[in-house]
Protein 1
Amino acid sequence: DVKVTQSSRYLVKRTGEKVFLECVQDMDHENMFWYRQDPGLGLRLIYFSYDVKMKEKGDIPEGYSVSREKKERFSLILESASTNQTSMYLCASRDRENRVYEQYFGPGTRLTVT
Amino acid sequence: GENVEQHPSTLSVQEGDSAVIKCTYSDSASNYFPWYKQELGKRPQLIIDIRSNVGEKKDQRIAVTLNKTAKHFSLHITETQPEDSAVYFCAAGQGAQKLVFGQGTRLTINP
């Protein structure tokens, strides 16, 4: 059974702080994704990674960066948090092999920036 | 790039009735169309998907139809039950590439 975990369910940070969101998957998946979820806007892709040390910008990468030093871990970094980054952040992973396209999501981190 | 529009944003149906959620996409190269269900406070989970080489796929009370010419696809839920209440997201993409999600539909099943 695929398991995707995120470091925090709830996080409160101040404007200007550097914020790290961690995601870990235990199924040896090559692909990992970071989304933010806002009411009425659906899931929007921030960054994704096809493999270790690889990263690609998604649709809304501004204000974010990522790190993938190990296959199982994908980190999202807010260099200087702003109030408009208050949102639910969802991580997902996918097996690139066997033409399996399903993305498995983590439980989400609700980030509030004050 | 791909753009996915989803309608309606909210849908309320009586228990036992059918529910239909529709999505349109813009990129004719997209060939993979999944639907995710997100219950309150939980993570999105895949409930059904369809690839562009078929027009319809069924799984018990859930079906998805795809019209490649018109670039739209729909989720059909029959004999709705209270546990079908959730937010549903459609998405479109090219195989193993990234997905673009729709805005979501909040489905409420009234007893």
Protein 2
Amino acid sequence: DAGVTQSPTHLIKTRGQQVTLRCSPKSGHDTVSWYQQALGQGPQFIFQYYEEEERQRGNFPDRFSGHQFPNYSSELNVNALLLGDSALYLCASTHWAKNIQYFGAGTRLSVL
Amino acid sequence: EDQVTQSPEALRLQEGESSSLNCSYTVSGLRGLFWYRQDPGKGPEFLFTLYSAGEEKEKERLKATLTKKESFLHITAPKPEDSATYLCAVQLNTGNQFYFGTGTSLTVIP
């Protein structure tokens, strides 16, 4: 049983560019959440998708947007990249009726 | 304001030297408290979830406990492979998002 998979594993971008990160949830899961983890910090919640809609959002600007597809996979888009967007981006999946979140290995984004 | 604080930030133990990690929380309404283990460059790995004060969960050398204000992760006779960052997260009863602490970096020396 494949767990949560994320792609790519690493990404290097320059300031002002746009980036798209991808996530496939664990089998049987229908809800996807995205987190940003800066070095030495705990993950910070960006937003959560269920039934192809954004259900909840953390304290992140509109430059961060997302999408969920009918197969429950999800994308995180970040526009107008800033140096401070450099972080590990984590995807977590769960079933809407349950509350344990399972994490992928993350995408390491470096903004130069 | 909802807050999760973990202590200590870092902990070095000799192999076999038992200790405890602390997670204190101030939240409006707790739905659940979660412990995760994170190895360098990897995503958090689920360990335990606790829902009510007095609850305890155990797995190998790890035991998690919960009170109304804090949770402890007890590590008994740790081994070098227990070295990792341990993250605590709370889930509020108003939504599904997790609020994480900054973690405790544990190093177990052979």
